[in-house]
Automatic annotation (TrEMBL):
Transmembrane segments: none
InterPro entries hit by this protein: Adhesion_dom_fimbrial (IPR000259), Adhesion_dom_fimbrial_sf (IPR036937), Adhesion_dom_sf (IPR008966), Bact_Fimbrial_Adh_Pro (IPR050263)
Protein name: Putative fimbrial subunit SteE
Pfam families: Fimbrial (PF00419)
Organism: Serratia ficaria
Length: 165
């Protein structure tokens, strides 16, 4: 096999003879901004009172479907801080397909529904929202399929957070 060193040298000469490359400086700039401070429900706890719930009517869909009433107010920061989001963090029950929030009565959960439809909310999901029209959230009692529900007072809790991302 023959080598052509002259041809390789000639090719390299063509690359070098193309002229001097110009170098330019790349400058970066920006401004760090604070994210707005957001307050949920004027800093007060959010209460959803189901009052009396008939055990045999619990369907996990529409019976006693209650809106979770909240407001979001943000101030300061930059309007370019990102998208305002809300999130509920709760302990789900270990049964069912709807990721219901655990309550103090065994076999009873609270299914959280987002929006006007029937979309189940999953704990720790960040939902886009805005101050003027907060994303609607609802709670609906749901029973464990085939399980006995004992009568009595119940409660459950979640932590709601608002943030910019």
């Amino acid at each position: 096999m023959k080598h052509f060193p002259g041809l390789a040298a000639l090719a390299c000469m063509g690359l070098l003879a193309g002229g001097v490359a110009q170098a330019v400086e790349v400058k970066f700039s920006g401004r760090l901004v604070e994210q707005p401070d957001c307050v949920l429900n004027a800093g007060k706890d959010i209460a959803v009172n189901f009052a009396d719930v008939a055990v045999k009517k619990i369907d996990g869909v529409s019976y006693k479907k209650m809106e979770i009433p909240y407001t979001v107010s943000c101030s300061g920061g930059s309007p370019n801080s990102g998208q305002l989001k809300v999130m509920l963090d709760f302990t789900p029950v270990s049964w069912g397909d709807y990721n219901p929030l655990q309550t103090t009565i065994p076999n009873l959960g609270l299914r959280i529904v987002q929006g006007a439809g029937d979309t189940t909310y999953v704990s720790k999901t960040k939902l886009s929202t805005d101050e003027a029209n907060p994303t609607k959230l609802y709670a609906v009692p749901i029973g464990r399929p085939g399980a006995f529900l004992a009568a009595g007072d119940f409660s459950g809790s979640a932590t709601m957070t608002a943030m910019y991302e």
